[in-house]
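Final report, Chapter 2: Outcomes

The project's central promise was a pipeline that accepts a single protein chain and returns its three-dimensional structure in a standardized token representation, suitable for archiving and comparison. That pipeline is now operational. To close this chapter, we reproduce one record exactly as it appears in the project archive, with the input sequence first and the structure output second.
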Amino acid sequence: MSEMEEEARQNAPHDGAIHKDVVYKSTLLHTLTLDIYEPLERKSDKAPIYFYIHGGSWLHGDKELVNVYQKTVHTLREQGIAVVSIDYRYVSQSGIDAMISDCKDALIYVQNHAKEYGLDEHFIGLHGHSAGANLALVTGLTLSKQNSDIHFIVDEYGPTDVVKLLKNNNNSPWWTFAIPDAAMKDLSPIDMLHSSLPPIYIVHGDADKKVPIDQSLAFYKRLKDQDSEVTLTVIPGADHSYRGASSEQVDKIRSDVLAYMLAAYAGE
């Protein structure tokens, strides 16, 4: 168990209605589940949805990682927002297409069953870190072509040009050698832009060695060039997962991200 996974388990909330291990999809080899944390205080009959996709290099991690961000989860629930965190098949288990379809199917399941949990299926914000941010972008950019249910996406240091990041360098992960560039493009948000995108908030450290900040800078430029609503915050001196940043910097990042999401849920 990683240090972050242990922190997540220690921070797991025990109050409010929590629905653990809800099955959203079954395959021949896998039963895929998600967790739904209902609001601690309801502000309306139908609670907006915060949909979290965990990171882990597309190879590890699980839905409990949302509890690393305990203050964010607790505050959102206090403000009448439901929190959903999902598991999905890793790329090493079933490939890129299955991983992407799991994330989309999980969100569609929540929308289809929103009435059971008092959720607003038409007001969804997506959030992820690293590989989870990548999948949040892929999911949100894909589904926002069909409707306006995705109100924002928060991308914290997520890869946006996966072909460039993983295929065109000398340190490619082992699993990339069996996957063609065309499949990698399905995991590259920079190649998925369209005219009806939701607002996107990007945060990235300028000393990130795992996912270089060039990934976010190029993505930001492409979004600005097509007049999409996008915000970019650069964290000076921060490596991946904000390693090297001060505790004050990390606290401010989390506070700013939370403020952005609360404003979006409030329609500001």
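Archive annotation: The mean pLDDT is 91.
This record, like all others produced under the grant, will remain available to the consortium after the project formally closes.
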